[in-house]
From TrEMBL:
InterPro entries: ATPase_NBD, Gcp-like_dom, T6A_TsaB. Residues 33-145 form the Gcp-like domain. It comes from Zoogloea oleivorans. It holds the Pfam family TsaD. This is tRNA (Adenosine(37)-N6)-threonylcarbamoyltransferase complex dimerization subunit type 1 TsaB. The keyword Transferase applies. Keywords: Transferase. GO terms for molecular function: transferase activity. GO terms for cellular component: cytosol. One of its GO terms (biological process) is tRNA threonylcarbamoyladenosine modification. SUPFAM superfamilies: Actin-like ATPase domain.
Length: 230
């Protein structure tokens, strides 16, 4: 089984190929969106792995939530490549991919959503796999809340961007946090492999990013109300 994965939901893009037990990953350089560099990196990745594009069984992508431009790029590139070789695509939630990089049993993912907001979700690890405990949502840092029961480990860039407000709002059931992780294409590939085995693939034409908010920018009044600049 060979899974090609794309992850460009943040400014730190990456591509990966999972070939059986072998995993090869490359960073995607460039400004947010990575539109100029993602295809050359995919081709370089395949050359490095010694695998042809037509040998790939499915193409996975980080579906979001995340940067709108990056999500559309990953989805569009995955669709184009998959249609060209007649293979399916596998959307993988960005927050789930991020949670899979944490070794705790109760993971509260909180990623910087820009516009003074946070993307967040909760996952529980059971028998080596992740279960979605609370679905992805978006809120201002002071309004983000943990699930009603249990102690949770915070994971994601929001703990760096909005540490004071976020930690205060989450309260004493936050058992600690790591502000450094970013979603990786390798994580997308691993999760996609499980979906592929279960037959959880879709036709490329049906692929779409996951958005949990509709607005891509704030008005001047909204920025000022959140402590930003006019």
């Amino acid at each position: 089984m060979k899974i090609l994965a794309l992850e460009t939901s943040t400014e730190f893009g990456s591509v990966a190929l999972l070939d059986g037990d072998r995993l090869v990953e490359r960073q995607v350089a460039g400004r947010p969106g990575h539109s100029e560099t993602i295809l050359p990196e995919v081709l370089a990745l395949l050359r490095e792995a010694g695998v042809g594009l037509h040998d790939v069984d499915a193409i996975a992508f980080g579906a979001g939530p995340g940067a709108f431009t990056g999500l559309r790029l990953a989805c569009g590139v995955a669709q184009g490549l998959a249609m060209g070789i007649g293979k399916p695509v596998i959307p993988v939630g960005t927050l789930e991919a991020l949670a899979s990089q944490c070794d705790r049993d109760f993971v509260f993912v909180a990623a910087d959503a820009r516009m003074s907001e946070v993307y967040f979700a909760a996952y529980q690890r059971q028998d080596g796999s992740l279960r979605e405990y609370a679905p992805p949502a978006c809120a201002v840092p002071a309004d983000v809340r943990l699930p009603p029961e249990g102690e949770w480990f915070g994971f994601g860039s929001a703990f760096r961007a909005y540490r004071e407000a976020l930690v205060a709002g989450l309260g004493p059931r936050l058992a600690g946090f790591d502000e450094s992780p970013i979603p990786l294409a390798s994580s997308v590939a691993r999760l996609a492999a499980g979906r592929f085995r279960r037959g959880e693939v879709i036709d490329a034409a049906l692929a779409a990013p996951l958005y949990v908010r509709d607005k891509v920018a704030l008005t001047t009044a909204e920025r000022l109300a959140r402590g930003g600049k006019a």
